Amino acid sequence: MKPTNKTTFFYPEIFFTLIILVTGFILIVITPMGANNDEETYTARIFEMSLGNLMPNSFLGEGRNYPTALISNSYRQDVNLWPIDVATWVEQAKVRINWNNRDFDSLINYKTRAVYFPTLFLFQAPVMRIMGPRLDIPVVFIYYAIRFSYLLIYILLVYLALRIIPFGKWLLGAIAVAPISLITASSISPDPIIFGICFLFIAWILFLTNQQAIHLSTKQLVITCGLILAVCTLKPNYIFLLFLLFVFPYKGFLIRRDVVILLFACLVGIGISLGWNYLASRIVISQLDLASDSTTQFWSLFSEPLIFIRSLGLLYQIPLEREKRD
After folding, report:
1. Residue 266 CB neighbour total at 10 angstroms
2. Lower CB count within 10 Å: N or C terminus of the chain?
């Protein structure tokens, strides 16, 4: 039997985005506040940005400036992690923040560990600003709204990726609706944007290499440079996705102008990524009184190799001692 117009539902971009929307919405509602990984620290970063502070802890680091209600109702503050019942949810739904007349007792010292580029929280900051100080919405619904904003961005990016990728649509869709992907997409986290941009960047590169055109058009070059900069504003380890640019058939496809512009976009993006993460990380490390950061620890492997070898030996020694005791 030949397919009819009703089979439009089974187009990968429609089928998978509907799955993400329905499943993600359910996960948003049934997941307690702060139950997802690092939701507390990301919420703090969004709160700080909603007040116009882009650099992490530029406002929170000045003292007791964080509303207690945003942290006291977090699921991970419960040591025993009991299931949330309806009565508890009803009580949490009544909690509001006195945004206009915040007394000192309603504020706590809290510093975020989220040092990522501001664009990963840019759309969520206005959501908190409008629903918080402007509309005085209960905290739990602010949580839901911010989660939903991340879900919508993820859906949009996945939809675009599925539309433009020339092959492997069902494989990409299956990855996009994997359990960990859906849980992450419905949480307060920059990861929905990160995953979505990665999907879109890969799909765009495959689309360009699969086309029959002789060289990139100006529009395609602009889009490619925009995606390069977008990838560079993600976590630093995603910069390695730029190596996908080498799949271009440079001979007979890219003219010298294209190569120069793409190289310049890569250098600018990498510079922005490394510069921002270095400055933001140094501020957070100093404010949280951390002994060292990952960069220092990495170089210590070469400057103090004997200490590394002894530490590695201890890691293997501890399980052996436990087996002997058992």
Report:
1. 18
2. N
3-state secondary structure of 83: coil
Whole-number Å distance between alpha carbons of 1 and 140: 50
Beta bridge mates, 66: 108
Give Cα 5 distance to the centre of its chain.
37
Structure tokens at 173: 């869709």
Residue range 122-156, pLDDT digits in tens: 999 999 999 888 888 888 899 999 999 999 999 99
| Sign of the CA dihedral running 159, 164, 170, 175 | negative
User: Quick one: CA dihedral 58, 150, 124, 134, positive or negative?
Assistant: negative
End-to-end CA distance of the chain: 65
- Token pair belonging to 39: 């939701």
Question: Of the candidates 200, 202, 40, 191, which has an alpha carbon nearest to the alpha carbon of residue 116?
Answer: 191
Tell me the pLDDT tens digit for each residue of 49-71: 998 888 888 888 887 888 888 88
pTM of the model: 0.82
176 touches 215 (CB < 8 A): no
Give φ, ψ of 67 to 5 degrees.
-60, 130
Q: Using the structure block, give the residue that is written with the tokens 């560990």.
A: 113
H or E element in which residue 85 lies:
none
Tell the burial category of 189 from Cβ atoms under 10 Å away from its Cβ (0-12, 13-18, 19+).
buried
Mean pLDDT value of segment 194-221: 87
Residues 6+ apart with CB under 8 A from 2: none
Query: What would the pLDDT profile of 247-281 be if each residue is shown by its tens digit?
Result: 876 555 667 787 888 899 999 999 998 888 888 77
Q: Which residues contact 200 (CB under 8 A, 6 or more apart)?
A: 157, 160, 161, 164, 227
Assigned token pair, 164: 């433009």
